[in-house]
Amino acid sequence: MHDGSGRIIVRGLSKSYGPVHAVRDLHFTVEPGTVTGFLGPNGSGKTTTLRMILGLVTPTAGTATINGLPFHQLPNPASVIGAVLDAQSFHPGRTAQNHLRCYAAAMNVPDEQADRALELVGLTPAAKRKPSGFSLGMRQRLALATALLADPQVLVLDEPANGLDPEGIAWLRNFLKAFAASGRTVLMSSHFLREIEHTVDQLVVISRGQCVYDGSIDQLRAQQQSRALVQAADPGALAAKLQESGFRVESLPDGRLAVLGA
Ligand code: ADP
Q1: Which residue from 40, 90, 102, 216 could staple onto 131, CB 3.0 to 4.6 Å apart?
Q2: Domain named ABC transporter: which ranges (predicted)?
Q3: What are the DSSP E strand ranges found in 18-147?
Q4: Residue 41's domain spans which residues?
C-alpha cells in the first residue's frame, strides 16, 4: 500500500557480486522529517544500498520500500523521490537554466518549476552561465536542483558533501535541514563523519556491507563520551569480568580495551 509518508524502510537487504558480499542483511528505517546519514568507508556498500533503494540494482535478498512500495511500483516516482548519485556532467553548450529546463521538459514539469529549483539552490544569479565555469559546490547545487525538479518528498544523495569546502558544507547543511523540517525525508551517504555530523539527526553506520550502528547522532556522541580506554596485564580476563558486569567491551589492535558505557 502506498502510505504517502516519505518513509524509507529497508529490510534484510543484501547484494552479492559473485563472491563479493557488497551488502549483507541490512535493516533500517528513515523517518520523514529527518536527515539520516549513511556512513561508512569506501567500499562498504553505501552506493549499492542507495542504488537498490532507487531500483537501479536488484537485491540478492530483502526489500527496500518508499511509502510502503518498492521504487518500481511507485505511481509517480519523480514526485516521490529525487536523487543525486554521481558527480553529474552537464551539456557543455547549455546554461544552468537551459540544463534544468531540458530536464523539466523531459519530466513534464513547467519551466517555472525549473526556475524555482534553481532559486531553491541559490543559483538564480548564475542562471545564464554555463556549468563548465562553475565551482564544484555550484555543480553539486545544480545536480541537487535537478533532483528537486518534481518537488519530491524524499531526497537520496550519494556523498553530496564530498570535496565541498566548509562554506559549501554549511550551505548543504542548512538546505537539507530546512528540507527535512518541512516534513520531508533525506538520506545522504558519506565516508567522513565530520562532513555530516552537524547535518544528520539519525546515523546508520555500515562496515563491510553490514550495519554496525543505527541510532541518533546524540546517542552516538554520548556513547563515545562514555568510552574509556583501559590497559590490562590480562585484557581477556578483564574483558570477561567487565562484560559480566554489563559493559560492552571492544579489543583494540594495540591491546587496550575500549569500554562502552563506563
Ligand atoms: P561504497 O559506496 O561504500 O564505496 P559500493 O557499494 O560502491 O561501496 O561497493 C561495495 C562493494 O561492492 C565493493 O567491494 C565494490 O567493489 C563492490 N561492487 C560494487 N558494485 C559492483 C559491481 N557492479 N560489480 C562488482 N562488484 C561491485
Answers
A1: 90
A2: 8-233
A3: 20-30, 35-39, 61-66, 81-84
A4: 8-225
260: in domain: yes
Number of domains in the chain: 2
Q: How far is CA 227 from CA 23, 169, 239, 260, in A?
A: 29, 29, 14, 5
Same domain, 154 and 61: yes
3-state secondary structure (DSSP) of residue 2: coil
pTM of structure: 0.85
- For ligand 1, the distance from its centroid to the CA atom of residue 16, given in whole angstroms, is 9
> How far, in Å, CA of 112 to CA of 102, rounded?
12
pLDDT per residue of the chain (262 residues) written in tens, 0 to 9: 446 689 999 999 999 999 999 999 999 999 999 999 999 989 999 999 999 999 999 999 999 999 999 999 999 888 899 999 986 778 888 999 999 999 999 989 999 999 999 999 999 999 999 999 998 889 999 999 999 999 999 999 999 988 888 999 999 999 999 999 999 999 999 988 888 989 999 999 999 999 989 999 888 777 766 677 777 778 888 788 777 766 778 887 777 777 776 4
The ipTM value here is: 0.98
CA-CA distance, 102 to 188, in Å (whole number)? 26
- Backbone φ and ψ of 64, nearest 5°: -130, 125
CA 61 to ligand 1 centroid distance, Å: 16
Mutate to test the pocket of ligand 1, among 48, 162, 187, 206 (most ligand atoms within 8 A of CB): 48
Note whether 161 and 248 are same-domain residues: no
